[in-house]
Amino acid sequence: MSAEKIDPKYIQSYCSGCGLCHTMFGCELKEDKKGFPTVVNGNPAELKHICPVFYYEGAAKHDVWGRVKKALIGYSSDADVRFKAASGGALTELCVYLLESRKVTGILHTTYDPADQTKTIACVSNTADEVRSRCGSRYSISVPLYDLQELMRDGETYAFVGKPCDVMALRRGIEVDPSLGERIPYLLSFFCAGEPSVNAQNDLLAAIGTNREKFDEITYRGNGWPGYTTVTEKDGNVLKMEYKNAWGKHLGRDIRNLCRFCLDGTGDAADIVCADFWYLGADGTPDFSEHEGRNIIIARTERGVEMLDGAVDSQSLTIEDDFTPKVDTELKLYQPAQYKRKGTMGSMIRAMRLCRRKPPKYGKEYLKKYGSHLDGKVKRKFFLGTVKRVLKGKI
Ligand SMILES: Cc1cc2nc3c(=O)[nH]c(=O)nc-3n(C[C@H](O)[C@H](O)[C@H](O)COP(=O)(O)OP(=O)(O)OC[C@H]3O[C@@H](n4cnc5c(N)ncnc54)[C@H](O)[C@@H]3O)c2cc1C
User: Fold this and answer.
1) Do 160 and 219 reside in the same domain of the chain?
2) Are 203 and 191 within one domain?
3) 16-38 pLDDT, tens per residue?
4) b/e sequence 228-239, b meaning 16+ C-beta within 10 Å
5) What is the 4 CA–ligand 1 centroid distance (Å)?
6) How many folded domains does the chain comprise?
7) Pocket around ligand 1: residues whose beta carbon is below 6 Å from it?
8) 83 with 177, same domain?
9) I need a labelling partner for 135 at 20 to 30 A (CA). Which of 44, 78, 89, 279 fits?
C-alpha cells in the first residue's frame, strides 16, 4: 500500500491510542464515542511508520509466539511484590533490577489516576519503592506515550513498560528516530487481551453493586493470583468479584476496535514480555482458582536476555523452570485465548470482508502461519461470531 493511498479513516479505525504520534509529530487525540482516545489528524505517510497496525503487513517475521530467545517460569523473590502484583511481579522486579543496577534512571509506566481509579495516568518511577507501589494491572484506557517529552528529563535514560501496542509503536518510532532509543533503551510488555471502554467500567461497577457516586478505589486483580476485582466505596464498604467474571462478563465485552483485531497480544516488539503462567486443571485447561502468582518471562532480544539473566543473578527473580524448548509446543495450553485469537484472525477478516467492512490489512503469510495449527471448527465459530457482531452493530 503506498503512503498516498492510506485512508485517514483506516488509521482512526485501527488507532491504538498510544499517543506516540503526539510526541513525535504533534498529532492530536480526541475521545471517540466510547471514550477511546483516537488520532484525529496527522500525515498518513508518517503514521504508517509508527502505528502498530501496519507492522503486520507483508511477509511474516516470526511465528505465533513471536521471537523467543529465552523463556523462564518464575516470580518475584519478594513475597509482598509477588502477592500484590498482577501475576508474579516479574515485570516489577525487572524494573527494580534496571534501576538498582543503574542501567536506567527511571521507569516510564502507568498507574491509577488518583482522581478516578477507573482511569490511568502515565508516570515515571525513579526508585524501587515507587515501582513496587505501582505494580498491578489496570484494565482501563491508558495513553502512555502522549506525554513522553514532559515525562523525560534531559540526560536521563529510561525503561518503558506498556501494552503490546504501546511497545510496538515505540519500537517502530525508535526506527524512525534512533535518538528516542538512546533515551529509552529497554522496552517491556505483557500479554494483553484488550483495553476496556468507559462503558465497560460502568457496567462492572454496577454489576459489583456500586456506582460512580459511591465508588472510591478499584483493584482489578492482584493481592493474590489472579486475586479478586475489589472495589472500596467512600464509606469503606468493600465489594468483590471473581477476576474471571470481571473480565469475562464485563471488562472484556467492550474493548477498543483494534483490540478485537489485534495480532499482537503477545508483545512481539518488546525486549521482554511477561504473562500469566496459569496452573493447568485435570482437563488440561487453565485453572483460574487462587494460587501464588507466577509468570512466564520471555526475552525476545539479546538486551532482553541480558536483563533477564541480570535479574536472575541478583536473586530478585525466583525461577521454577526453563520453558524455552517447550514454547512452540506447550505455551498454547497455558495461553489458549492468545493462541486462538491469532489463529482465527484470518477467519475474522474474511467475515469482515463478507460484511463489506474494512478489516486490518494483515499480511497473508501471518494469517496462514498463525491459523495453520488451529482446528477448522474453532475458525468457523470465530467467523460466525464476527458476522453476528457486525449484524448486531457491535463492530
Ligand atoms: C488491559 C490488560 C489486559 C491483559 N491481558 C492479559 C492476557 O490476555 N494474558 C496475560 O497473560 N496477561 C494479561 N495481562 C497482563 C497481566 O495482568 C500481567 O500484567 C502480566 O502477567 C505481568 O504480571 P506481573 O505480575 O509481572 O506485573 P506487575 O509486576 O504487576 O507489573 C505490571 C506493570 O504493568 C503496568 N501497567 C498496568 N496496567 C497498565 C496499562 N493499562 N497500560 C500500560 N501499562 C500498565 C504497570 O505500570 C506495571 O509496571 C493484561 C493486562 C492488562 C493491563
Assistant:
1) no
2) no
3) 999 999 999 999 999 999 999 99
4) bbbbbbeeeeeb
5) 37
6) 3
7) 85-92, 109-111, 120, 134-139, 142, 144, 161-163, 190-193, 195, 265, 274-276, 295
8) yes
9) 279
